[in-house]
Design goal:
The chain has 67 residues and is of the alpha+beta class. It has 2 helices and 4 strands, in the order H-H-E-E-E-E. The longest helix is centred in the first third of the chain and has 5 residues, at 16-20. InterPro entries: YlzJ.
Length: 67
């Protein structure tokens, strides 16, 4: 586990092709950083929120597949 203010991509660089698949979207009123999968679905990478209660919601667990 790394305790750092750096983003995951700063520590583990990704290719340009992978970066084109990553987007910041609004889903159910929440800002999410997602990666587009091959089948058109999105995988949640990061919840962007200042409300601590949002992070307790299991719907926003990193790795969750959004339709």
């Amino acid at each position: 586990m790394l305790y750092t203010p750096l983003s995951e991509t700063d520590i583990f660089p990704v290719s340009e092709q992978e970066l084109n698949k990553r987007h910041c979207v609004s889903h159910k009123g929440k800002q999410l950083f997602v990666e587009e999968l091959e089948d058109g679905q999105y995988q949640l990478l990061q919840l962007i929120s200042t409300d601590p209660n949002d992070f307790m919601n299991g719907d926003y667990t990193p790795g969750t597949i959004l339709k």
